Amino acid sequence: AHGGTLFLDEIGELPPKAQIRLLRVLQEKEIDRVGGTSPVKVDIRIIAATHRNLEAMTAQSKFRTDLYFRLRVFPIHIPPLSQRPDDIPLLVDHFLFQLASELDQKMPGLTRQAREKLGRHDWPGNVRELKNVVERGALLCDQAIMDVDTIVFSHEMGQIPFLSPAIPLAAASLKEQVNQLEKKIIISTLKEAKSIRQGARLLNISHPALINKMKKYKIRKVSQIAYERQKV
User: Fold this and answer.
1) DSSP letters spanning the chain
2) pLDDT tens across 11-25, in order?
3) Conformation bin of residue 190: beta by default, left when phi > 0, alpha when psi is -120 to 50
4) Contact at 8 Å (CB) between 50 and 7?
5) How many whole angstroms separate alpha carbon 122 and alpha carbon 125?
6) Which of 183, 159, 180 lies closest to 171 in space, CA to CA?
7) Distance (Å, whole) CA 92 – CA 114
8) What are phi and psi of 193, to 5 degrees?
9) Taking the CB of residue 137, how many other CB atoms lie within 10 A of it?
10) Residue 48: strand pairing partners
11) How do strand 45-48 and strand 109-110 relate by DSSP bridges?
12) Most-buried pick from 3, 63, 97, 149 (CB within 10 A)?
């Protein structure tokens, strides 16, 4: 980050030993590289974020006071997502654009009812929760537009019939749940497809993208899946 900006997310979670090291970087403007023999000068701008009350943590000796004041040059308070509903449509479109780039496919749009449901939610998990809901909706949607039924919040996951028996919600993280769902959809599609290319077309993703996902989830070739289906 020399000559640029270093963003430190959730700075309030930084362990005490790491706080000391970061303070030295800010004070001396130098670091010791692993395996290095001499300090390296760095010129960086620090942007730090946290959901914790750092001032209260310093009073409780859970966060170094000297580091706190080093970081608190220009504080910016960002209200929770529940207090800025006008940002929700912008963030939804942003996350769908990110997904389209990552998956190399066109993402569905949202109906007015789906957007209204997003606007009524209180978002205890803030922007991260919104991103998870959007990604989940994109996976559940098999049409060109996401309806209200594909906007599923965490507390509603157990109401999805084909998810309930297969995925232990209490034991799996959201990322693991999404991966399991994606794997199940790919396998189900490949069982009906005559080739991987046809499977990619049915899933509306590129052929290389499907190959990479099959490697990621260790999914066998279509011929093996079809052979097992014929035996049954």
Assistant:
1) -TTSEEEETTGGG--HHHHHHHHHHHHH-EE--TT-SS-EE---EEEE--SS-HHHHHHTTSS-HHHHHHHTTS------GGG-TTHHHHHHHHHHHHHHHHHTSPPPEE-HHHHHHHHH---TTHHHHHHHHHHHHHHH--SSEE-GGG---GGGGGG-TTTTTT--TTTS-HHHHHHHHHHHHHHHHHHH-SSHHHHHHHHTS-HHHHHHHHHHTTPPPHHHHHHHHHH-
2) 999 999 999 999 999
3) alpha
4) no
5) 9
6) 180
7) 11
8) -85, 155
9) 24
10) 8
11) unpaired
12) 63
Whole-angstrom distance, CA of residue 224 vs CA of residue 186: 14
Query: Which tens digits make up the pLDDT trace of 155-195?
Result: 676 555 444 444 444 445 667 777 888 888 888 888 777 78
Q: Which two tokens stand for residue 140?
A: 């559940």
What are the tokens at 108? 């569905």
Report how far residue 184's alpha carbon sits from residue 139's, in angstroms, rounded to the nearest whole number. Answer: 11
Pair 136, 130: CB distance under 8 Å: no
Amino acid at 91: L
User: What is the C-alpha to C-alpha distance for residues 21 and 222, in angstroms, rounded to an integer?
Assistant: 53
Residue carrying the six token digits 């599923």: 152
